[in-house]
Records
---
Amino acid sequence: MAEEDLFLASLHYDQGVPGLGWVFFKEVDSAVERVVVNPSVFRVIDKQLKLRKVRLKRFPYAIYFTIEASEAFVHDVIHSGRDTGFLPERMK
Protein backbone atom coordinates (compact mmCIF):
# COMPACT_ATOMS: atom_id res chain seq x y z
CA MET A 1 0.00 0.00 0.00
CA ALA A 2 2.81 2.43 0.78
CA GLU A 3 4.13 2.24 -2.80
CA GLU A 4 0.69 2.98 -4.27
CA ASP A 5 0.13 5.90 -1.88
CA LEU A 6 3.58 7.30 -2.72
CA PHE A 7 2.93 7.04 -6.44
CA LEU A 8 -0.46 8.78 -6.17
CA ALA A 9 0.97 11.56 -4.00
CA SER A 10 3.82 12.05 -6.46
CA LEU A 11 1.36 12.30 -9.37
CA HIS A 12 -0.69 14.83 -7.43
CA TYR A 13 2.33 17.04 -6.80
CA ASP A 14 3.55 16.73 -10.40
CA GLN A 15 0.17 17.82 -11.71
CA GLY A 16 0.40 20.99 -9.67
CA VAL A 17 4.07 21.75 -10.33
CA PRO A 18 6.08 19.62 -12.77
CA GLY A 19 9.03 18.06 -10.96
CA LEU A 20 7.53 18.45 -7.50
CA GLY A 21 6.72 14.74 -7.41
CA TRP A 22 10.44 14.00 -7.70
CA VAL A 23 11.14 16.41 -4.83
CA PHE A 24 8.50 14.56 -2.81
CA PHE A 25 10.21 11.20 -3.49
CA LYS A 26 13.58 12.65 -2.44
CA GLU A 27 12.01 13.91 0.80
CA VAL A 28 10.60 10.44 1.49
CA ASP A 29 14.06 8.96 0.87
CA SER A 30 15.57 11.47 3.29
CA ALA A 31 13.05 10.55 6.00
CA VAL A 32 13.66 6.83 5.47
CA GLU A 33 17.39 7.47 5.79
CA ARG A 34 16.77 9.18 9.16
CA VAL A 35 14.87 6.06 10.25
CA VAL A 36 17.66 3.75 9.07
CA VAL A 37 20.34 5.74 10.90
CA ASN A 38 18.53 5.83 14.24
CA PRO A 39 15.03 4.30 14.26
CA SER A 40 14.60 4.33 18.03
CA VAL A 41 14.78 8.13 18.16
CA PHE A 42 11.20 8.32 16.85
CA ARG A 43 8.55 7.95 19.50
CA VAL A 44 6.14 5.04 19.67
CA ILE A 45 2.63 6.20 18.76
CA ASP A 46 0.89 2.84 19.29
CA LYS A 47 2.33 0.68 22.06
CA GLN A 48 0.40 -2.46 21.13
CA LEU A 49 1.60 -2.37 17.51
CA LYS A 50 4.97 -0.81 18.42
CA LEU A 51 4.25 1.66 15.65
CA ARG A 52 6.41 4.73 15.19
CA LYS A 53 6.21 7.67 12.84
CA VAL A 54 8.53 10.14 11.19
CA ARG A 55 7.17 13.27 9.55
CA LEU A 56 8.42 14.60 6.25
CA LYS A 57 9.98 18.03 6.60
CA ARG A 58 8.62 19.70 3.46
CA PHE A 59 5.37 17.85 2.80
CA PRO A 60 2.35 17.04 5.00
CA TYR A 61 3.05 13.30 5.11
CA ALA A 62 4.32 10.85 7.71
CA ILE A 63 5.99 7.46 7.42
CA TYR A 64 4.68 4.80 9.81
CA PHE A 65 7.11 2.02 10.71
CA THR A 66 8.02 -0.62 13.25
CA ILE A 67 11.36 -1.94 14.45
CA GLU A 68 11.77 -5.71 14.44
CA ALA A 69 15.05 -7.50 15.13
CA SER A 70 17.03 -4.28 14.65
CA GLU A 71 15.38 -3.58 11.27
CA ALA A 72 12.87 -0.88 10.43
CA PHE A 73 9.83 -1.90 8.40
CA VAL A 74 7.83 0.82 6.67
CA HIS A 75 4.12 0.04 6.75
CA ASP A 76 2.67 3.15 5.17
CA VAL A 77 3.18 6.73 4.07
CA ILE A 78 0.09 8.78 4.84
CA HIS A 79 -1.02 12.38 4.40
CA SER A 80 -1.12 14.12 7.78
CA GLY A 81 -4.76 15.12 7.32
CA ARG A 82 -5.90 11.55 6.78
CA ASP A 83 -7.38 9.35 9.51
CA THR A 84 -4.91 6.61 10.49
CA GLY A 85 -7.47 4.29 12.10
CA PHE A 86 -7.06 1.80 9.26
CA LEU A 87 -3.34 1.21 9.97
CA PRO A 88 -3.79 -1.84 12.25
CA GLU A 89 -5.65 -3.67 9.46
CA ARG A 90 -3.01 -2.78 6.88
CA MET A 91 -0.27 -4.08 9.15
CA LYS A 92 -1.71 -7.63 9.33
---
Amino acid sequence: MKTASEQELVDLVVGWVKENMLTNSSNDVEISGNTNLLESGLLDSFAFVELLLFIENCFGTKINLVDSDPEEFTVIKKLCRLALQNGAGRHADDLDREPDRTELLASHPEI
Protein backbone atom coordinates (compact mmCIF):
# COMPACT_ATOMS: atom_id res chain seq x y z
CA MET A 1 0.00 0.00 0.00
CA LYS A 2 1.29 3.45 -0.86
CA THR A 3 1.26 6.04 1.90
CA ALA A 4 0.67 9.74 1.53
CA SER A 5 0.22 12.76 3.71
CA GLU A 6 -3.20 14.36 3.94
CA GLN A 7 -2.04 17.33 1.83
CA GLU A 8 -0.65 15.04 -0.89
CA LEU A 9 -3.94 13.20 -1.05
CA VAL A 10 -5.91 16.47 -1.11
CA ASP A 11 -3.75 17.69 -4.02
CA LEU A 12 -4.28 14.40 -5.85
CA VAL A 13 -8.07 14.58 -5.37
CA VAL A 14 -8.23 18.26 -6.40
CA GLY A 15 -6.32 17.38 -9.59
CA TRP A 16 -8.65 14.46 -10.31
CA VAL A 17 -11.74 16.63 -9.77
CA LYS A 18 -10.38 19.32 -12.12
CA GLU A 19 -9.89 16.70 -14.83
CA ASN A 20 -13.21 14.91 -14.25
CA MET A 21 -15.69 17.55 -13.07
CA LEU A 22 -19.04 17.78 -14.79
CA THR A 23 -18.93 19.83 -17.97
CA ASN A 24 -22.06 21.74 -16.96
CA SER A 25 -20.55 22.85 -13.64
CA SER A 26 -19.23 26.36 -13.25
CA ASN A 27 -15.56 26.83 -14.07
CA ASP A 28 -15.61 29.71 -11.56
CA VAL A 29 -15.72 27.33 -8.58
CA GLU A 30 -12.44 27.34 -6.71
CA ILE A 31 -11.54 23.76 -5.91
CA SER A 32 -9.73 23.33 -2.61
CA GLY A 33 -9.66 20.99 0.36
CA ASN A 34 -12.79 22.69 1.68
CA THR A 35 -14.87 22.17 -1.47
CA ASN A 36 -18.05 20.13 -1.09
CA LEU A 37 -18.00 18.01 -4.22
CA LEU A 38 -21.74 17.39 -4.44
CA GLU A 39 -23.15 20.72 -3.24
CA SER A 40 -20.83 22.60 -5.63
CA GLY A 41 -22.15 20.55 -8.55
CA LEU A 42 -18.64 19.51 -9.54
CA LEU A 43 -19.47 15.80 -9.31
CA ASP A 44 -22.64 13.78 -9.55
CA SER A 45 -23.11 10.48 -7.70
CA PHE A 46 -21.54 8.44 -10.51
CA ALA A 47 -18.45 10.65 -10.69
CA PHE A 48 -18.21 10.56 -6.90
CA VAL A 49 -18.08 6.75 -6.96
CA GLU A 50 -15.41 6.97 -9.68
CA LEU A 51 -13.41 9.26 -7.39
CA LEU A 52 -13.69 6.76 -4.54
CA LEU A 53 -12.45 3.98 -6.82
CA PHE A 54 -9.58 6.19 -7.98
CA ILE A 55 -8.47 6.81 -4.38
CA GLU A 56 -8.86 3.14 -3.47
CA ASN A 57 -6.82 2.03 -6.48
CA CYS A 58 -4.06 4.57 -5.84
CA PHE A 59 -3.59 3.52 -2.24
CA GLY A 60 -4.63 -0.13 -2.31
CA THR A 61 -7.32 0.26 0.32
CA LYS A 62 -11.10 0.36 0.60
CA ILE A 63 -12.93 3.40 1.91
CA ASN A 64 -15.80 2.45 4.21
CA LEU A 65 -18.49 5.13 4.13
CA VAL A 66 -21.45 3.14 5.45
CA ASP A 67 -21.30 4.51 9.01
CA SER A 68 -20.16 7.99 7.97
CA ASP A 69 -22.19 11.17 7.82
CA PRO A 70 -22.25 12.51 4.21
CA GLU A 71 -20.64 15.74 5.42
CA GLU A 72 -17.64 13.62 6.42
CA PHE A 73 -16.95 12.45 2.88
CA THR A 74 -18.38 14.98 0.42
CA VAL A 75 -15.83 17.66 1.41
CA ILE A 76 -12.43 16.92 -0.16
CA LYS A 77 -10.30 17.34 2.98
CA LYS A 78 -12.68 15.23 5.10
CA LEU A 79 -12.81 12.51 2.44
CA CYS A 80 -9.00 12.42 2.38
CA ARG A 81 -8.83 12.11 6.17
CA LEU A 82 -11.35 9.28 6.05
CA ALA A 83 -9.38 7.53 3.29
CA LEU A 84 -6.17 7.79 5.30
CA GLN A 85 -7.91 6.50 8.44
CA ASN A 86 -9.40 3.57 6.52
CA GLY A 87 -6.02 2.67 5.07
CA ALA A 88 -4.10 2.71 8.34
CA GLY A 89 -3.26 -0.75 9.64
CA ARG A 90 -5.49 -2.59 7.20
CA HIS A 91 -4.74 -6.15 6.14
CA ALA A 92 -5.49 -7.54 2.70
CA ASP A 93 -7.93 -10.05 4.22
CA ASP A 94 -10.04 -7.18 5.59
CA LEU A 95 -10.48 -5.55 2.18
CA ASP A 96 -12.91 -8.24 1.00
CA ARG A 97 -15.28 -7.55 3.90
CA GLU A 98 -16.23 -3.99 2.92
CA PRO A 99 -19.71 -3.21 1.62
CA ASP A 100 -20.04 -2.81 -2.13
CA ARG A 101 -20.91 0.46 -3.89
CA THR A 102 -24.57 -0.57 -4.34
CA GLU A 103 -24.92 -0.87 -0.57
CA LEU A 104 -23.18 2.49 -0.12
CA LEU A 105 -25.53 4.27 -2.53
CA ALA A 106 -28.58 2.60 -0.97
CA SER A 107 -27.54 3.68 2.53
CA HIS A 108 -26.79 7.28 1.43
CA PRO A 109 -29.38 8.35 -1.17
CA GLU A 110 -28.12 11.95 -0.99
CA ILE A 111 -24.97 11.08 -2.94
---
Amino acid sequence: MSYYNGSDGDSPVSILDAIAMRLGNDDNVGKKGFCCCNTAQWESFITIGVTAVITAFLWNSVIFAPAKLVAVFLHEFSHALATWMTCGRVTGIEVSLHADV
Protein backbone atom coordinates (compact mmCIF):
# COMPACT_ATOMS: atom_id res chain seq x y z
CA MET A 1 0.00 0.00 0.00
CA SER A 2 1.34 3.43 -0.89
CA TYR A 3 0.44 6.88 0.26
CA TYR A 4 1.14 10.11 -1.52
CA ASN A 5 3.21 12.99 -0.26
CA GLY A 6 0.99 15.98 0.41
CA SER A 7 3.41 18.55 -1.02
CA ASP A 8 3.23 17.60 -4.69
CA GLY A 9 0.75 14.73 -4.62
CA ASP A 10 2.72 12.73 -7.18
CA SER A 11 5.37 11.07 -5.02
CA PRO A 12 4.26 7.76 -3.50
CA VAL A 13 5.62 6.99 -0.03
CA SER A 14 5.36 3.83 2.02
CA ILE A 15 3.25 3.70 5.18
CA LEU A 16 6.46 3.63 7.26
CA ASP A 17 7.78 6.73 5.52
CA ALA A 18 4.42 8.42 6.07
CA ILE A 19 4.65 7.65 9.79
CA ALA A 20 8.25 8.93 9.89
CA MET A 21 7.22 12.16 8.16
CA ARG A 22 4.22 12.53 10.48
CA LEU A 23 6.48 12.10 13.52
CA GLY A 24 8.91 14.65 12.13
CA ASN A 25 11.70 12.10 11.70
CA ASP A 26 12.64 12.85 8.11
CA ASP A 27 16.09 11.25 8.53
CA ASN A 28 14.58 7.84 7.79
CA VAL A 29 12.29 8.70 4.88
CA GLY A 30 13.09 6.69 1.78
CA LYS A 31 15.57 4.38 3.48
CA LYS A 32 15.22 0.60 3.56
CA GLY A 33 13.57 -0.49 6.77
CA PHE A 34 12.17 1.75 9.43
CA CYS A 35 13.90 3.10 12.46
CA CYS A 36 12.25 5.25 15.07
CA CYS A 37 15.52 6.75 16.30
CA ASN A 38 17.93 9.25 14.84
CA THR A 39 21.71 9.11 15.21
CA ALA A 40 21.87 11.13 18.44
CA GLN A 41 19.31 8.84 20.06
CA TRP A 42 21.26 5.72 19.04
CA GLU A 43 24.45 7.25 20.44
CA SER A 44 22.62 7.89 23.73
CA PHE A 45 21.31 4.30 23.86
CA ILE A 46 24.79 2.89 23.24
CA THR A 47 26.39 5.20 25.81
CA ILE A 48 23.83 4.24 28.47
CA GLY A 49 24.27 0.54 27.67
CA VAL A 50 28.06 0.64 27.85
CA THR A 51 27.91 2.63 31.09
CA ALA A 52 25.50 0.10 32.61
CA VAL A 53 27.76 -2.84 31.66
CA ILE A 54 30.89 -1.17 33.06
CA THR A 55 29.04 -0.25 36.25
CA ALA A 56 27.75 -3.81 36.67
CA PHE A 57 31.28 -5.23 36.39
CA LEU A 58 32.84 -2.70 38.76
CA TRP A 59 29.96 -2.33 41.25
CA ASN A 60 31.63 -4.23 44.11
CA SER A 61 35.06 -2.74 43.54
CA VAL A 62 36.78 -0.07 45.64
CA ILE A 63 36.48 2.33 42.70
CA PHE A 64 32.72 2.75 43.19
CA ALA A 65 32.72 2.92 46.99
CA PRO A 66 32.54 6.76 47.22
CA ALA A 67 29.83 6.95 44.57
CA LYS A 68 27.81 4.24 46.31
CA LEU A 69 28.08 6.08 49.64
CA VAL A 70 26.80 9.28 48.06
CA ALA A 71 23.97 7.40 46.34
CA VAL A 72 22.93 5.68 49.58
CA PHE A 73 23.10 8.97 51.49
CA LEU A 74 20.92 10.75 48.91
CA HIS A 75 18.44 7.85 49.01
CA GLU A 76 18.22 7.94 52.79
CA PHE A 77 18.04 11.73 52.78
CA SER A 78 15.00 11.51 50.49
CA HIS A 79 13.31 9.37 53.16
CA ALA A 80 14.19 11.99 55.79
CA LEU A 81 12.86 14.77 53.55
CA ALA A 82 9.57 12.91 53.09
CA THR A 83 9.37 12.46 56.86
CA TRP A 84 9.93 16.18 57.47
CA MET A 85 7.33 17.07 54.83
CA THR A 86 4.75 14.98 56.67
CA CYS A 87 5.62 16.65 60.00
CA GLY A 88 7.64 13.69 61.24
CA ARG A 89 10.88 13.72 63.18
CA VAL A 90 14.22 12.36 62.02
CA THR A 91 16.71 11.56 64.75
CA GLY A 92 19.63 10.72 62.46
CA ILE A 93 20.92 9.23 59.25
CA GLU A 94 23.74 6.72 59.34
CA VAL A 95 25.51 5.48 56.21
CA SER A 96 28.20 2.83 56.49
CA LEU A 97 30.62 1.54 53.90
CA HIS A 98 30.14 -2.09 54.98
CA ALA A 99 26.36 -2.14 55.48
CA ASP A 100 25.19 -4.30 52.58
CA VAL A 101 22.23 -5.65 54.51
---
Amino acid sequence: MDMEEIFNLDPSLADELWARVMAQELLKLAKSTGEKAVARRMDSEAVRVLEEIKAVLNDPELNDPDCFYKIDAIVDVFFNSGLSTRRHEECE
Protein backbone atom coordinates (compact mmCIF):
# COMPACT_ATOMS: atom_id res chain seq x y z
CA MET A 1 0.00 0.00 0.00
CA ASP A 2 1.47 3.37 -0.96
CA MET A 3 1.14 6.74 0.77
CA GLU A 4 -1.71 7.94 -1.46
CA GLU A 5 -3.81 4.91 -0.47
CA ILE A 6 -2.89 5.05 3.22
CA PHE A 7 -3.87 8.70 3.62
CA ASN A 8 -6.38 8.90 0.75
CA LEU A 9 -4.48 11.80 -0.84
CA ASP A 10 -4.29 13.14 -4.35
CA PRO A 11 -1.02 11.74 -5.81
CA SER A 12 0.46 15.19 -6.53
CA LEU A 13 -0.33 16.39 -3.01
CA ALA A 14 1.15 13.23 -1.54
CA ASP A 15 4.34 13.75 -3.59
CA GLU A 16 4.62 17.36 -2.45
CA LEU A 17 4.16 16.41 1.21
CA TRP A 18 6.60 13.54 0.83
CA ALA A 19 9.20 15.84 -0.73
CA ARG A 20 8.80 18.40 2.05
CA VAL A 21 9.23 15.83 4.84
CA MET A 22 12.18 14.22 3.06
CA ALA A 23 13.86 17.61 2.57
CA GLN A 24 13.50 18.36 6.27
CA GLU A 25 14.95 14.98 7.23
CA LEU A 26 17.83 15.36 4.78
CA LEU A 27 18.58 18.81 6.17
CA LYS A 28 18.76 17.35 9.68
CA LEU A 29 21.08 14.62 8.42
CA ALA A 30 23.26 17.12 6.56
CA LYS A 31 23.63 19.25 9.66
CA SER A 32 24.50 16.24 11.78
CA THR A 33 27.14 14.97 9.33
CA GLY A 34 28.67 18.37 8.80
CA GLU A 35 27.80 21.15 6.43
CA LYS A 36 31.27 21.08 4.86
CA ALA A 37 30.72 17.55 3.59
CA VAL A 38 27.41 18.61 2.03
CA ALA A 39 29.02 21.71 0.53
CA ARG A 40 31.77 19.56 -1.04
CA ARG A 41 29.13 17.26 -2.53
CA MET A 42 27.16 20.20 -3.92
CA ASP A 43 30.37 21.66 -5.36
CA SER A 44 31.31 18.41 -7.07
CA GLU A 45 27.79 18.11 -8.51
CA ALA A 46 27.96 21.69 -9.81
CA VAL A 47 31.33 20.99 -11.45
CA ARG A 48 29.91 17.83 -13.08
CA VAL A 49 26.97 19.80 -14.54
CA LEU A 50 29.32 22.51 -15.83
CA GLU A 51 31.54 19.87 -17.44
CA GLU A 52 28.52 18.41 -19.23
CA ILE A 53 27.46 21.87 -20.44
CA LYS A 54 31.00 22.55 -21.65
CA ALA A 55 30.93 19.26 -23.58
CA VAL A 56 27.68 20.34 -25.22
CA LEU A 57 29.13 23.72 -26.19
CA ASN A 58 32.23 22.04 -27.66
CA ASP A 59 30.29 19.36 -29.56
CA PRO A 60 30.85 19.96 -33.30
CA GLU A 61 27.79 17.83 -34.13
CA LEU A 62 25.53 20.49 -32.60
CA ASN A 63 26.21 23.20 -35.14
CA ASP A 64 22.90 24.74 -36.22
CA PRO A 65 23.14 28.52 -36.77
CA ASP A 66 20.58 29.42 -34.07
CA CYS A 67 22.20 27.03 -31.54
CA PHE A 68 18.83 25.36 -30.95
CA TYR A 69 20.44 21.93 -30.64
CA LYS A 70 22.97 23.21 -28.11
CA ILE A 71 20.30 24.94 -26.06
CA ASP A 72 18.13 21.82 -26.14
CA ALA A 73 21.09 19.67 -25.06
CA ILE A 74 21.89 22.07 -22.19
CA VAL A 75 18.26 21.95 -21.07
CA ASP A 76 18.56 18.14 -21.11
CA VAL A 77 21.66 18.39 -18.87
CA PHE A 78 19.61 20.45 -16.42
CA PHE A 79 16.68 18.03 -16.40
CA ASN A 80 18.89 14.95 -16.19
CA SER A 81 20.58 16.54 -13.16
CA GLY A 82 17.27 17.20 -11.44
CA LEU A 83 17.43 20.94 -12.12
CA SER A 84 14.55 22.82 -13.66
CA THR A 85 14.32 25.56 -16.22
CA ARG A 86 11.36 27.21 -17.88
CA ARG A 87 13.16 27.18 -21.24
CA HIS A 88 11.85 23.70 -22.07
CA GLU A 89 8.26 24.70 -21.24
CA GLU A 90 8.49 27.66 -23.63
CA CYS A 91 9.41 25.37 -26.53
CA GLU A 92 6.53 22.94 -26.07
